[in-house]
Design brief:
The protein has about 260 residues and is mainly alpha-helical. The protein contains 11 helices and no strands. Helix 2 (about 25-35) runs antiparallel to helix 3 (about 40-60). It starts with a helix and ends with a helix. It is a multi-pass membrane protein. It comes from Streptomyces stramineus.
């Protein structure tokens, strides 16, 4: 790896760490760069996952204030993310990517629709729960949220681009909470998914240590930067950022 290639990977790591903390989809920064410097797709994907773990941790720490009072959610959703992330990592090495490539743009598109309609849909769901006299789904999201998080985490362990968009759309709709607190929870789930996938890959897959270290350092810096930026965004602006990033992810996946 030349010095210019190393700088490109490092810069991509900073960008990925920043955008991952704000909304997700940092893989859209790093993965193309790793391919451009000559890494095979699977090696690039594995190296990217390993490198982004520290950035996910950095972003979660940056959002620690918004995590207060969410311990029960973290444990419950974290276990779900752990199972899903490990499943996705196994599938990455066991299955061809064509099936995922076909369905992921559709999933992201649906997630963006949910993000845009989330305030209206959340109010409608709240009114329905009040009429039915139920409140459990308000706190924990119900089995529907657990199922959605399981599938999203499996996708995250497999590839992960726009995984954060899926998380935010699901939790933003099914949890009655501030979007910033939901975003903080999303960062913790990303740590779990990338962490378990990275641990699995360490023992069974090939990776490039130079790329891993460059992305790790860059994404750690970006995680702190993303926390400072993301916390200052209003729910409306944050929702707009999610939509823009999601559209970019769809376009890139369709054109690759």
């Amino acid at each position: 790896m030349s010095i210019w290639e190393a700088l490109a990977v490092f810069a991509a790591g900073i960008g990925a760490g920043t955008i991952n903390t704000i909304v997700g989809s940092g893989t859209l920064f790093t993965f193309p760069v790793l391919l451009a410097i000559g890494l095979p797709p699977i090696t690039a994907n594995v190296s990217n996952t390993l490198g982004l773990v520290t950035g996910n941790i950095s972003g979660a720490i940056g959002y620690r204030r918004e995590l207060r009072g969410q311990r029960r959610r973290i444990i419950r959703f974290g276990i779900t993310a752990l199972i899903g992330g490990l499943t996705g990592a196994i599938l990455l090495l066991a299955l061809p990517s064509e099936a995922f490539d076909a369905i992921v743009p559709v999933l992201i598109g649906l997630a963006l629709v949910l993000v845009v309609l989330q305030p209206r849909l959340a109010k409608a769901l709240a009114r329905r729960r009040e009429r039915n006299g139920t409140t459990d789904a308000v706190t924990d999201g119900g089995p529907g949220l657990l199922g959605g998080l399981l599938l999203s985490s499996a996708y995250g362990g497999y590839f992960g681009a726009a995984q954060g968009v899926l998380y935010l759309s699901l939790m933003g709709l099914l949890l009655r909470d501030d979007l910033q607190r939901v975003n903080a929870l999303k960062n913790v789930l990303a740590v779990v998914v990338n962490g378990v996938a990275a641990l699995f890959f360490l023992f069974v897959a090939d990776f490039d240590w130079t790329a891993v270290l460059l992305i790790a350092v860059g994404s750690t810096l970006g995680g702190q930067l993303g926390a400072k930026i993301g916390r200052r965004l209003s729910p409306t602006v944050l929702r707009g950022v999610i939509v823009v990033v999601g559209i970019v992810a769809i376009v890139q996946m369709l054109l690759k």
